[in-house]
Write a structure and sequence with these properties.
The protein is α/β, with parallel strands linked by helices. It contains 18 helices and twelve strands. The chain binds iron/sulfur cluster (SF4).
Length: 449
């Protein structure tokens, strides 16, 4: 565990005792296809702790690895590397009876109550199933336990013999929660437990989860994309991007003053309930890169509005800088050949455009900006490489001219106070340049769609 992570854990020592400690966790997938030498890096070196009795939120865009991380913590997926200590035991090493015994202590509640419940089983059978698998008590005791659980989650005894399709979405999620509680677990991964439900029902399920946590001293990992729900229910939040935790810390402090550029972008997209309170929104271009082909340096470097610039370009117009970054990212992804050059540009610019050759690409990317002399020659050189069908050389050339530490060096986590950690070079004195950051942020500021 890095020094910063240890220090932050020490600062939080008064908060509680860690139940789950993960260190350098990686979950990669090989698809066995032609590209199998490039595994999908769904979780790519994650370290944090979850205290007993706390709710840790896990947020991030779709595909950032949060569900894979949750599934790995309950061993529905196998870790490729790293440690998961549960109450001091590395569960990635457990096998056979030890693993089966440990599984009683942890459960998962799934996003979609419809697909997670077997429609051919009665509610009683569904909730009783984990008790049967683990041969807990006598059949009579198991039936009594199921009736008790139905009551605990706000259902009635007579529901025992009904089927899932006879229930509403909220009730079906209550059934899923009852099943998760059957073996008296200590830790539950809640994977978007309310996102498939109506808003009024969401509040009821969230209240139920909070009540159950107090009653049974449960520890939650709460995976969600709805940040207002996370703010309501979580003690701390971990923000994920492309398999990495970009920032982790106490919920209120993070929402009030996010430290990491990605957290700032994510939080700026939350609608402001008071329209008179005018806050800037940061609109990120394009979509995250493929986890099969993540950037070499910072995972957020291909979209980051605060990316560190080489000193020669600190004063370069923000719009020009932005177009150069798009050109570089287009070429980087082109080398991976998952999407055509023209399609990539359309995606990154957010425009529906047509290109037939490199001249059109030049016009589309740079036609409406004035390139200073210090930049024009480099762009022309790269375009010449592309015209010669040598996109790898164009990419390398632009890297040499415009690359920075954000492209080349993976950042480490920095303690930004109060036990909060942020993965960003900007926390180093050398790169903490507020004017530089401010200019670049303005480029990305505007109404989101
Ligand atoms: S390290 Fe660079 S690219 Fe990554 S979040 Fe910080 S400023 Fe942005």
């Amino acid at each position: 565990m890095s020094q910063n992570v240890e220090q932050a854990a020490h600062e939080r020592a008064s908060v509680g005792e860690a139940l789950v400690q993960i260190d350098g966790l990686k979950t990669y997938y090989e698809d066995g296809g032609l590209l199998s030498s490039h595994p999908v890096k769904a979780v790519d070196g994650v370290s944090f702790e979850i205290d007993r009795g706390e709710t840790l939120g896990l947020v991030g865009e779709s595909g950032c690895g949060k569900t894979t991380l949750g599934r790995t913590l309950v061993q529905l997926e196998s870790a490729t590397d790293g440690e998961i200590l549960f109450d001091g035991t590395d569960i990635t090493e457990l096998r056979g009876d030890d693993l089966k015994e440990w599984r009683r202590r942890t459960q998962m509640v799934f996003q979609d109550p419809d697909s997670s419940l077997n429609n051919r089983m009665t509610i009683g059978e569904i909730v009783r199933e984990p008790l049967d698998v683990h041969a807990v008590g006598t059949p009579r005791e198991r039936r009594a336990r199921v009736r008790e659980l139905l009551e605990v989650v706000g259902l009635r005894e007579e529901h025992y013999y009904r089927y899932p399709h006879q229930f509403s979405g909220g009730q079906r999620q209550r059934i899923g929660i009852a099943r998760a509680l059957a073996l008296e677990p200590e830790f539950i991964v809640l994977d978007e437990p309310v996102s498939a439900l109506d808003v009024s029902v969401q509040a009821q399920i969230l209240n139920l989860l909070e009540d159950l946590q107090k009653e049974f001293d449960l520890t939650y990992l709460f995976i969600a994309h709805d940040l207002s729900v996370v703010r309501h229910i979580c003690d701390r939040v971990a923000v994920m991007y492309l398999g990495h935790v970009m920032e982790i810390g106490a919920t209120e402090e993070m929402f009030r003053d996010p430290a990491n550029p990605y957290t700032q972008s994510l939080l700026s997209a939350i609608p402001e309930p008071d329209p008179s309170h005018d806050t800037d929104r940061i609109t990120l271009r394009g979509t995250p890169p493929s986890p099969r082909d993540p950037p070499e340096g910072c995972p957020f470097s291909t979209r980051c509005p605060m990316k560190v610039r080489p000193s020669a370009y600190r004063d370069l117009d923000g719009e020009v800088w932005e177009r150069i970054q798009i050109f570089r990212e287009v070429l980087r992804q082109r080398m991976n050949a998952e999407m055509g050059l023209k399609d990539r540009i359309r995606d990154l610019l957010g425009r529906d455009t047509r290109f037939s050759d490199i001249d059109e690409i030049r016009e589309e990317l740079f036609g409406d900006v004035t390139l200073p002399d210090s930049v024009r020659g480099h762009i022309e050189e790269a375009i010449d490489y592309v015209a010669d069908a040598d996109e790898a050389a164009a990419h390398q050339y632009l890297d040499e001219q415009f690359g920075s530490t954000c492209d080349e060096d993976p950042p480490i986590q920095h303690d930004v106070g109060g036990g909060r950690l942020s993965l960003c070079h900007r926390h180093l004195d050398d790169h903490a340049n507020p004017e530089d950051v401010h200019d670049e942020l303005n480029v990305f500021t505007g109404e989101s769609e």
